[in-house]
Structures are given as structure tokens and as C-alpha cells.
Design brief:
Number of strands of chain A: 4
Order of helices and strands of chain B: EHEEHHHH
Helix content of chain B: 40-55%
Strand content of chain A: 5-15%
Radius of gyration of chain B: 15 Å
Shape of chain B: globular
Oligomer: heterodimer
Helix content of chain A: 55-70%
Number of helices of chain A: 5
Structural class of chain A: alpha+beta
Distance between the termini of chain A: 37 Å
Chain lengths: 162, 143
């Protein structure tokens, strides 16, 4: 898999958290939000995002939410001491996202055999899905362009059938 | 009254400042700080960690303010739906306007300072409020 992983070497924002096992609803809500942000899970209760104002702010809100729910949380800024560590984290994140983009390519080609209205519905759904994936796509893999191209190709195909 | 928030305003803070000036405190003065510790003693902080007027549970700060000041105007809650999605994009609401609003606010914060942003976005949120108010009245998007 080809990814644009270098040169990474940048700062990260870390959320360290501990949330009671029960009730489980806040844990699940937190997990969903972390997933939506595309965090790297470094250890149990430790997640990281590349540092920018938005990522830092989003993790800060989650830290407050953990505290509101009776847990403990703090936010740290960190630099990896070796670029090897950082590359392996970035590669792992990119690999997960790449799999999701491949899923989109698969769905787009499966939809190519449908009739025109069903193709158009698939196009809107896949476009929304791409927006969601892109929101947490921090190290864009080459699969990204392919996924976007596949959905646009499906859109053209639906257009041609109409 | 004096109000304080973090510098580098994005959509939630911008919308809150508009809400404060328009519905809560017409004489509001705003200060922008880098860290919660820099909030002046006589200022009410909002959209900052640890502040009462901040994110709570699933709410963004704009929604927290609507609750705190008991603003039950349905148009404001409708604007709040858009602000929530522009800020958090967690798909709690169906708000297709949110992505556009998010991009415009991000772009604006690249070329203007906080004071300017508040001045420029006042009329924009007045317009958004008016548009959503007519939409709710008509039951469809106004032309």
C-alpha cells in the first residue's frame, strides 16, 4: 500500500482518559466520537491525533465529557521521539482508512449493474459516506483518489442511462 | 457586560457571540484569550474548557446558551441545529447547510482577526435567522 506518510514528524495532541466501566452508555458515546475523529489508539485510555486547532479542541471537549461522566481525563501535546514510532502509527491509521475506501470502490462497482434510479441513490449515499471517511482521513492513502473516482464514474454512468 | 472566549474563533463561538449581542446582552463587549487562566475576573467565559457556558453532554455551546438563557424561540433552535453540525459534524441532525457554514467560517478565520470576524458574521447570522424563520413559517425553503 502506498501512502503519503513522510515527512510526518509533527506534534500530536493526546487524550489520556479513564472512564468507569458502568454505566456503559458514556463509554459507548465516547468510543463513537473517538472513532468519528479517526484517533490513533496508542494504549488503553490513550488516544492521539495530529496537532491542529480543530483536533485539539475536539479532544478537549471529549476530556470535559469524560470528567462530566465521573471519569478522569487530561490533554497533552507531544512529539514522538523517533520518526519510526510515528510512521508506524500513521501507517496503521492509513491502512484502516484505505480499507474503508476499498469498500467504497467495491460498492460503487456493485451498483453499476443496477437501474438508473438505484444508481443515483447509491451515488448520493456513497458521496455522503466519502465525506464521513474523509473527516477522519489524516494520512490520505492512494485508495482515496480511487474511491472518489469510482463514485464519480458511477454518477456518470447513471447520468448516461437517464 | 464583558464576555470572554478563546481566540481564533470558529463557528460555535461566532454563533454564540451573535446570540449574546442579539438576544442576551446588546451592550456585550468581547475579549479573546489564549488560555482559560487569562479570562478577566469580570468577564463571563463561554466555549472554553471548564466554563458553564460550554459543551455539555451532546450539546455544543450555542445549544447550552439557549438552554441556560431559556431561549425557546424555535428559530434559534433551528439555527442551533445548523451550528451543532457545523461544529461537531456528528450527524445528530440533518443539516446540509452546516458543511457550507463550516467552510465559510474556517476560511474567514484565515484572513481576518476575531474582532473583524464578529463584525462580519453579525449580519450573516441575522440573515440565517431570517431565512430559517421564513422557512419554518412556510414549511419549505423560501425563494
Amino acid at each position: 500500500m502506498v501512502t503519503n506518510l513522510e515527512p510526518v514528524s509533527r506534534s500530536w495532541v493526546l487524550l489520556v482518559y479513564r472512564l468507569p466501566r458502568e454505566p456503559s452508555a458514556p463509554r459507548i458515546a465516547l468510543w463513537r466520537k473517538l472513532r468519528r475523529l479517526g484517533v490513533a489508539q496508542l494504549a488503553d485510555g490513550l488516544v492521539a491525533l495530529p496537532l491542529d486547532a480543530r483536533n485539539k479542541e475536539q479532544l478537549e471537549w471529549l476530556a470535559d465529557q469524560v470528567i462530566e461522566n465521573g471519569g478522569e481525563a487530561s490533554i497533552w501535546l507531544a512529539d514522538p521521539s523517533s520518526s519510526i514510532d510515528e510512521r508506524s502509527i500513521a501507517a496503521k491509521l492509513a491502512a484502516e482508512i484505505a480499507a474503508e475506501y476499498r469498500g467504497i470502490v467495491g460498492e460503487a462497482s456493485a451498483a453499476a449493474t443496477l437501474d438508473a434510479p438505484a444508481q443515483r441513490r447509491a451515488v448520493s449515499r456513497l458521496r455522503r459516506e466519502l465525506i464521513r471517511i474523509r473527516q477522519r482521513d489524516l494520512f490520505p492513502p492512494s485508495e482515496r483518489d480511487r474511491a472518489f473516482a469510482a463514485v464519480e464514474e458511477l454518477a456518470h454512468r447513471a447520468e448516461a442511462l437517464t | 457586560m464583558k464576555w470572554a472566549t478563546r481566540s481564533g474563533c470558529h463557528v460555535d463561538r461566532v454563533a454564540c457571540a451573535w446570540l449574546i449581542r442579539t438576544f442576551i446582552d446588546p451592550d456585550a463587549a468581547f475579549v479573546f484569550v489564549g488560555d482559560p487562566a487569562e479570562v478577566p475576573a469580570d468577564a463571563t467565559p463561554f466555549d472554553m474548557r471548564g466554563a458553564e457556558l460550554s459543551h455539555h453532554g451532546a450539546d455544543c455551546t450555542f445549544e447550552t446558551m439557549l438552554r441556560r438563557y431559556e431561549l425557546d424561540d424555535p428559530v434559534l433552535w433551528d439555527v442551533g441545529r445548523i451550528v451543532h453540525e457545523a461544529d461537531l459534524a456528528d450527524e445528530t441532525f440533518d443539516a446540509p447547510e452546516a458543511r457550507g457554514l463550516d467552510v465559510l467560517m474556517r476560511g474567514l478565520s484565515m484572513v481576518r482577526g476575531d474582532e473583524d470576524i464578529l463584525a462580519l458574521t453579525g449580519p450573516l447570522f441575522d440573515g440565517l435567522y431570517e431565512y430559517r424563520s421564513r422557512a419554518l413559517m412556510l414549511g419549505r425553503d423560501p425563494s
